[in-house]
Write a structure and sequence with these properties.
Blueprint (H helix, E strand, L loop, with lengths): L1 E5 L9 H17 L3 E5 L14 H13 L2
Parallel strand pairs: 1-2
Amino acid sequence: MAVSVCAFNLYDTDTPAAMKRFARLETQVRGLDADVLAVREVVAREPSPGNEPGKRELATAGVRWAAKL
């Protein structure tokens, strides 16, 4: 089974509310037992200037985290 998830800023922040949302998403994805998982909207925001990682780095980190599910 193939599943597409619109994640909206997946793992973009570590606030308690966001971590609760990510935990719910992880539980739902695990329960699907999908053979193929497509994740959209991993990072929808632009990083702020400074030492933050760029949009590509944020997206890569989010997808790698999700791949461990």
